[in-house]
Sequence to fold (135 residues):
Amino acid sequence: MKNITFILMLIFGFSFSTLAQNKVSDFRKKYGKEIYYNYSGDFNYTQKYLDELYIIAEYYIANSKNELLKKIIENKGRLEYSVEQQQRNDKEYTVLGIGTVIEGRITKAQWLFYDAENNILYEYDLPNDELVVFE
Fold:
C-alpha cells in the first residue's frame, strides 16, 4: 500500500512538495516500521478513509518539527495514533493523537485536526487553544 502513497495523496487532494515527499521516503527508510493506530468501534470508518488517515499521519510525522516525535523515530520507538471525531467551532474534524507507549502508558506528542471536507491538516496548539494549518 505504501508504494501508492503519493498517487493516493493526489487523488484525495492532499498534495505536498517534492521536499516533503523526500522526507516521507527518508522517514520510511530510517524508521522501517508500520505506524499503529486505533479507533473506537463507535465510528464507522471505511478502510479507504483509514488508509487516507495513515498516509496523512505518516506525512505529518515525516515532516514535523516536533522534537518528541523526532526522538521517538531516532530511538525506533513504537509510533501510534488514535482516531476520533470532534466538533470544534461548529465544524466536524477527524482528530489524530500521535504519540507512543512508554512504560505501558500512552504519551501523545501531538494532536492533529483533519478537515476532510477541505483536505486541510491542522496542528493543535495547546497553549493557545487554536488550530494552526500544517504546511
Remarks:
- The mean pLDDT is 86.
- The chain has four helices and six strands.
